[in-house]
Amino acid sequence: MVQHQTAQVSPENHTSLWRTFARLGPHLRPIFPRLALGFLCALAAGVVALAIPQVLRELVNSVLYAGGSNRDVWIAAVVIAGLGTLEAVLVFLRRVFVITPAARLETTLRVNLYRHLQQLPVAFHDKWGSGQLLSRSMADLGLLRRWLAFGSIMLVVATVTVLVGLALMFSSNWMLGAIYLAGAVPITIRAFYFRNVFRTASRLSQDQAGDLATAVEESVHGIRVIKAFGRGRQSLEGFSVQAERLRDTEISKARSLSGFLMFVVSIPEITLGIGLLVGLWLTAENQLTVGELVAFFATAAVLAGPVEGIGMLLGMTLTTKTALDRHFDVMDTASTIVSPAEPVSPGEQRGHLRLCGATFSYPDAKPDAAPVLDGIDLDIRPGETMALVGTTGSGKSTLLQLVPRLYEVTGGAVELDGVDIRDYDLEALRTAVSVAFEDTTLFSASIRDNVLLGARPTPGQTPAQALDEALDVAQAGFTRDLPDGVDTVIGEEGLSLSGGQRQRIALARAIAAKPLVLVLDDPLSALDVRTEERVTERLREVLAGTTTLIVAHRPSTVMLADRVALLDGGRIVDVGTHGELLARSDHYRYVIASLDEPPTVEDVLNAEEASP
Ligand SMILES: Nc1ncnc2c1ncn2[C@@H]1O[C@H](COP(=O)(O)OP(=O)(O)OP(=O)(O)O)[C@@H](O)[C@H]1O
Hints:
Elements: H1 17-22, H2 25-28, H3 32-65, H4 70-119, H5 122-127, H6 130-137, H7 139-172, H8 174-182, H9 184-221, H10 223-228, H11 232-284, H12 290-331, E1 353-360, E2 373-380, E3 385-390, H13 396-402, E4 411-416, E5 419-420, H14 426-432, E6 433-436, H15 447-451, H16 463-473, H17 499-512, E7 517-521, H18 529-543, E8 547-551, H19 555-558, E9 563-568, E10 571-576, H20 578-584, H21 586-594, H22 601-610
Parallel strand pairs: 3-8, 3-9, 6-7, 7-8
Antiparallel strand pairs: 1-2, 1-4, 4-5, 9-10
Helix pairs in contact: 3-4, 3-7, 3-12, 4-7, 6-7, 6-9, 7-8, 7-12, 8-11, 9-11, 9-12, 11-12, 16-17
């Protein structure tokens, strides 16, 4: 069965409701005036709604019982219709005022999250499932917008409406008011229990939704493998289990909310029943007018909506709180690989790269595990090409990633032109160092934009010339034959291109950046022999003036290098020219013999001739 990777579910955050929402404070300041106007309109609409029963009371008392004229009836009807219209206008204005700031807050937080994700080290992205990050940046922030535009305002309005309604009930008759208010005691006690259960379920459902998004992302990404291995059914079964888990959580969440709402709705009804009995008795005793009794029930009817609404909105507020906690979980993750407060600018930039006792362990490594790289000393002279050769898992790719600080050394240092790379401005370092990985990532953009991604303006060369040059070196002339030439938009991650074509575009991207140091992780592995030969020939010209560290899995790639560093179990065991190492190192001969060299045409013809 295909197992979907369970994405990282961050621990439940136990901050209080108030503390979580208080963290929005700085973001709320610029949108506060519009929000405040929205709140005022909503409050005014609530007050207008409450005024209608009072007009009704006057109508009953002065018109029906005190023998008022027809004119009085018409005036009362017009006042009620006017109040109704005013309420509708205020509700409309509330929406107009709050929608823009709520959408603006959502966008601001989303952009901040995206910026932060860009700054977080690769080790963070190794750990977090993409779906978790997707759901945090899309669904969770959508919840916040809806809560701000609707939930928060309605919660305040409903609470104020209930308080004003209660005050009116008390002012009309304290005994009826007290009976209605008594219902608040059991509701408050129940609310505490509900809050705990609902908050936990809410957090779980959001985390499970994130896991589900990761599963979709992985299966879409790996659809070819799933189909090729005929694992569609197993993949579906795995997905169904996760989807059902989420469904169960959603159902338990909905049950918890329904139970609470039933309580919130039924308690006021019970108190109203008791109020009816007491009210009738008071009216019979002439301690209450019929108009006052009607106004009491009309007010209770107006309050029924807000009271139920408070229950619903409490659920919405708790869901938004957990969404915000999830957002802050990511935002609170400190970026460990950052520019220093006062970056050092090196004098002459020559591209002299040195690793001095560089040691590295992945963050999730067992405490007693040996480091992946152990005390690496390597001196790569300006303009020199150094190949890294070693058996699989010896740490070659890991070593490359230390140079642009994708991972940070856990011991020792990496120096560029005599300066520790941790003392460089991060952007300046990554401009100086350009990378092409074996596993190429291309973006949904034109070939031109993909290739010029890291290119900086070069005096005497237009971007178009830089593009042409890079494509020529990488032997990526095929791009000019695509439907829109270099402006052809390639599919998600360049899936519409072959592996070799994608690799050549990634190589062109690294070359177009005109870096001081070029870091290449087996960039020619997917090319056929002839294309590789042509690329190698042109690459040799580029490499002549650029310090290059290149992982080689083929002898032909090793031939590009001035010197070769032999890596074994995370240590450099020898450094020398290809010839020197061949002559003196058994391990090198063993590694070279096992390198992946595709058969040449001559090999194939010879093999065919030899076969019976
Ligand atoms: N993101 C990661 N988290 C934890 N361990 C990792 C990670 N990436 C690689 N490793 C481990 O680090 C070790 C070195 O891996 P690395 O990819 O650097 O080797 P390599 O020499 O490039 O191998 P290959 O020639 O197969 O590409 C391996 O044991 C690998 O399992």
